[in-house]
Amino acid sequence: MATSPGSSSGSSSSGVSSSASPPGALGAGAALDIRTRSVEQTLVPLVSQITTLINHKDKPKRSDKTLQAIQRVGQAVNLAVGRFVTVGEAIANENRELKEEMSIACIEAKRAGETIAHLTDVANLDHPESDGRITIFTDKTQVVKAARLLLSSVTKVLVLADRIVIKQIITSRNKVLATMEQLEKVSSFQEFVQIFSQFGNEMVEFAHLTGDRQNDLKDEKKKARMAASRAVLEKCTMMLLTASKTCLRHPDCESARVNKEGVFHRMRLALEQVIEIVTDSRPNGENDMAPLSIYTGIKEFKNKVEGLRENLYFPSKENLSTMLELILEHTEDFTDSAYTSHEHRERILELSKQSKMELEHLVSVWMQAQNQRMKDITEDLEVAILKTCQCINELKRELHSAATSMAAELLKYHADHMVLKTLKITGVEGNLEAVAEYTCKLSEQKEQLVEMCRLLRHVSGTEPLEITCIHAEDTFRVTGPQIISAAETLALHPSSKIAKENLDVFCEAWESQLSDMSILLREINDVFEGRRGEKRVYLSLPRPGKHNANLKALKPVKLDAEEQAKIAKLGVELHLLTSDIDSKTEKWEDQENEIVRYGQSMSSMAYSMYLFTRGEGLLKTTQDLFHQAEIFATEATKLVSTLHAFSNQLEDDDKPLLLLEIDRLIPVCQQLQITAKTTVQGKNATFIKVDACIQKTTVVMTILSQILPLCYKLLRKQKAGNGYPISFPMEGEQNSNKNK
């Protein structure tokens, strides 16, 4: 039984709601409110097996095959419950405060499992009527009663186990908060170093617990919120170190104190949000999230309008008008923005006006159909529905275009990080006047980026991406003033190495968020264009069943703290390379170019491997990582073929540089493929293999980061010389050309 969690705490709710006992007939087992994958994997098969027993057909003649099948299901249920109870009892022994409740639930589950096994026993099923024995055939209500008791007790065990996991996370959070309070009050470097070492260990433990929880959540919205909070904590840990050291070195510096307090405040908010998600609660009964976004409003409005085809009398005209008014009210965020172009603003206003007119006409035709007591929609009403939906779709498209084009321009404009570079230089020079001038420029940049995030949220297309936009907006809003206070501190103490290091850390966080925005923008465009529903993931992971014959090979190996720290360090380098490659592929005018597509694919796979180093993402086990590494190496090999085809179209003078990079790439791809396929046994050997896979992936990505700009340069040169673009043959075409 997996004891990783649901999304709520003890008294309020859990991985399954406490009302999860299935009411009435068990065929409707969907009444279970399952919130986590681990609980789902435990309960759903059990519900399915029990439903099979209860829904069997009562035939007068029962073959031996039927009787044996029923017995097998009954025995399978009993054995599964036995294993489940063993785990539950072990958990009870380790947690005294829940031992009594857990033991009672385990006893009930065991008794119910044995009852089901007895009722489905072949010895009893053969001729039950003759000796008056009660079986599944003579009294189905007994099976239903046992099944209800079984699911009720199993659910209770899961709720209690989940409560323990939640308690672990809360306890871990409390330890982190207590140590943070000590760190805030220290007055000597020696004391700070000792406490920070303890703090680092506590943060690693908290990261592991919350990472497991995040991966277990079924709700993508909660997952995204958890990921955002954990990202804040990860980045703030380094900020807390440098900001605290700066404050200790310069205790009388007001800007250093403000800088440090900002970090502690943000970490506390992030810790609080994690607990809100884990316990499924909000302080003071607040609502879950921010105001409605336009994409959500349009989606709901269209559903209502199109619903008229099914039911002419369900929605009210006032309801539709209110929904449209709310959407148009939010479009003012675009029309009032100083960064929206004149053309986009005029088009948005025009489409808003047209949407109102189309809805008014729709309501008129609709009311007419109601007055005539029509049962089906008329042709006029169908046309009005189509026109209203078409108009609102055009408005949605215009808003998307306005937000994404503005974002693309802003990200391109700020890509050189000139303001940050100048702040660092003027800070080291101790030039307070210049620092003041460039902090004003950074504040302007911050306002632009915050506005960009706000508009992107409206067109994000999915709730997880919307939450990512909110997180980005918050990051720019908070990090901007922190960079300013760090720069002011450096300007006041220009010879201070720690003050310089502190400013570097905050600037890196800003640059990292800008890089993440490029990826986010691509995700939003992809969702809008229907290329994918969520984040792009190039995976081909093994699935349970026919491909998993060797279960021992798939057994995940948990890394210890030292190993995790080493892998995490490697992962950071991989993350930086994926950001670098994403920015390089975006420069290509032709995004469908084969080289670009392979580059994007490999970058996305490398990013999923980076997430593995943080205990996040879809790669859950070491086996998943090895399989992903193998697919990555295959993709890189395909890229090599495309690069060779490209080199054949180049002038002789241009070929050597590209061929040199190709020759560097080929052996590393082969090594990675061999490493990923090699079978290993034991924890140490598995860690060495993980380390090798990530290191070799990093080498491939490093070479790729050099190949992409080289190909871009050669392609532009070729275009300038020939006056027409180079064509890249597809994989099949390459093979046919070789055959010729």
Element order, helices and strands? HHHHHHHHHHHHHHHHHHHHHHHH
Q: Between the first and last Cα atoms, what is the distance in angstroms?
A: 58 Å
Uncertain stretches of 5 or more adjacent residues: 1-13, 17-31, 130-134, 532-556, 723-740
Identify the CATH architecture of the domain at 561-719. Up-down Bundle
Backbone shape? globular
- Top-tier CATH class of the domain at 561-719: Mainly Alpha
* Helix/strand class: mainly alpha
Radius of gyration: 31 Å
- The CATH superfamily label of the domain at 561-719 reads Alpha-catenin/vinculin-like
In total, how many beta strands? Answer: 0
Organism: Crocodylus porosus
Keywords: Cytoplasm
GO molecular function: actin filament binding; cadherin binding
Protein name: Alpha-catulin
Strand-helix topology:
Blueprint: H1 37-54, H2 64-94, H3 99-119, H4 122-125, H5 128-131, H6 140-185, H7 189-216, H8 220-249, H9 254-279, H10 294-306, H11 317-330, H12 332-335, H13 342-371, H14 379-413, H15 418-429, H16 432-458, H17 463-492, H18 497-528, H19 561-585, H20 594-613, H21 622-647, H22 655-677, H23 683-722, H24 731-739
Helix pairs in contact: 1-2, 1-6, 2-3, 2-6, 3-6, 6-7, 6-9, 7-8, 8-9, 8-17, 8-18, 9-17, 10-11, 10-14, 11-13, 13-14, 14-16, 14-18, 15-16, 15-17, 15-18, 16-17, 17-18, 18-19, 19-20, 19-23, 20-21, 20-23, 21-22, 21-23, 22-23
